[in-house]
């Protein structure tokens, strides 16, 4: 297992404690199984797709859960019927239960999932709230005191309008 020293990053960043904790947690994952195989694709500027190979599983045997920035994909095969007495001479198709976890960033939402030809496609999109988007901050000139503008007053200042009174 590799351990990365993130202390140099602490000197030049503010408020990224959660990111560093997540990196430490991801580095601590030990002995993760390679089953089932998966792809992670970027399908647009703020759109992503996770594709998991789940051959032999039905939609009833699969589950998706998004909780606290962790997307969990689970698969559990139904037990065989009592009267099914199949004797395998070779069993190369894995039909074992699995749980695969993916860390997703803040503001990433699952918009849909579909099972197609043994592949589970999970569509994700990053939707950044207006309050989190970049905005211009006016700079006061000379001896004028700096104004603290809220988001709605900022839009007025950007448009060149005088600030409205806050209610």
TrEMBL record:
Residues that span the membrane, as ranges: none
Q: Which species is this UniProt entry from?
A: Camelimonas lactis
Question: What SUPFAM superfamilies does the record point to?
Answer: HSP20-like chaperones
Write out the entry's keywords from A to Z: Stress response
PANTHER family (UniProt xref): PTHR47062, SMALL HEAT SHOCK PROTEIN IBPA (PTHR47062:SF1)
* Segments forming domain SHSP: 29-142
Q: Which CDD domains match?
A: ACD_IbpA-B_like (cd06470)
Which protein are we looking at?
Molecular chaperone IbpA
Report the sequence similarity comment from the record. Belongs to the small heat shock protein (HSP20) family.
Region annotation Disordered: where it falls in the sequence: 141-167
Q: Which PROSITE patterns match?
A: SHSP
């Amino acid at each position: 297992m590799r351990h990365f020293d993130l202390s140099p990053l602490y000197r030049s960043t503010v408020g990224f404690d959660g990111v560093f904790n997540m990196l430490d947690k991801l580095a601590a994952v030990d002995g993760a199984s390679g089953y089932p195989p998966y792809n992670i694709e970027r399908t647009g500027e703020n759109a992503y797709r996770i594709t998991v190979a789940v051959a032999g599983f039905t939609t009833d045997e699969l589950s998706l859960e998004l909780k606290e920035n962790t997307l969990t994909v689970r698969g559990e095969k139904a037990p065989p019927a009592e009267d099914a007495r199949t004797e395998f001479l070779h069993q190369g198709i894995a039909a074992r239960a699995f749980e695969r976890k993916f860390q997703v960033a803040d503001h990433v939402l699952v918009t849909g999932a579909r099972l197609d030809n043994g592949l589970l496609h999970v569509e994700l999109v990053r939707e950044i709230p207006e309050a989190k988007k970049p905005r211009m901050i006016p700079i006061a000139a000379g001896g004028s005191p700096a104004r603290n503008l809220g988001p709605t007053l900022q839009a007025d200042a950007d448009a060149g309008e005088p600030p409205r009174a806050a209610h």
